[in-house]
Amino acid sequence: MEARPVSAPAAQPPTGRTEIAGLPWVDDPGSVAPPDARALSKVFFDRLATLEEGTPEYAYARNTLIEMNMSLVRFSARRFRGRGPEEMEDILQVGTIGLIKAIDRFDLSREVEFSTFAVPYVVGEMKRFFRDTSWAVHVPRRLQELRVELAKARDHLTALLDAPPTVAELAAYLEVGEEEVIEGLVASNGYTAGSLDLPVGDDVADPAEAGRTYADTIGAWDPAMELMEDLHVLAPLVERLDARERLLLRMRFGQEMTQAAIGAELGYSQMHVSRLLSRTLAKLRAGLLADG
Predict the structure, then answer these.
(1) pTM for the full model?
(2) Residue 122, C-beta contacts closer than 8 angstroms, at least 6 positions apart
(3) Model confidence over 9-34: pLDDT tens digits?
(4) Could you give the CA distance from residue 244 to residue 249 in angstroms, rounded to a whole number?
(5) Architecture of the CATH domain 141-197
(6) For 19-133, which CATH class?
(7) What is the rounded CA–CA span in Å between residue 282 and residue 65?
(8) How many CB atoms within 10 Å of residue 30?
(9) Cβ neighbours for 47, distance < 8 A, ≥ 6 positions apart
(10) Quick check: helix, strand or coil at residue 94?
(11) pLDDT at residue number 2
């Protein structure tokens, strides 16, 4: 997932003024120490509740709150240390989204510290980021969450029953339908994906097989499969033909007899056999088009 940058530029105060909308002007909100940010945040939240959304004053108060509390995002991101610099940048971006949601929903009347209220929002966005981007294929969130529940249930029941649980046992334990359990188990296959370029194995008896990749073992498209489909569709159409038409088809295509040989056996001229076959094939072709 490529997170879009979240920018929160603070408005500039009029020349010579040290406050805006009754709030102190903060030159560099991002450099405010956390203890000072906690105290200032209460002042800004109290004033933000009285300002009209969309006004420059509202934007200044909200953007200053975002920048002053970015330390909460950086603090929450520590649990994901070890990620690459690019991924860590995405984590900070989605964490900022969580911070903005917390600011928009915070209410001073709850008498809760903003940091206590905001961190679950920030961490929640980060976890959602990993949940949505860690799957090899796109899987609905409902099934992603079900996969986690199934894994926990399977471990618990395996320890309890001393054997892997059945689908019915998993469904009963989670109080969901068996079809939903099966759907969740199938969806779990989308969590990881192996490369087609991976080697088949090192312990290959035949030296000629050494160095083969998984892609080399996958069968190619078999044209006969398409022929089987055509024959399956043709079967009921052939049944509708009369006895002579079916006999002609069997002799021409089943026994691979020439038109002259068919004519000699049935007492027809080659031209007559040709016309009969053309008429029969046209009838089958029309039936195929009608069914399609």
Answers:
(1) 0.43
(2) 72, 73, 76, 95, 98, 99, 102
(3) 444 444 445 677 788 888 889 888 88
(4) 9
(5) Orthogonal Bundle (1.10)
(6) mainly alpha
(7) 78
(8) 15
(9) 21, 22, 23, 61
(10) helix
(11) 46
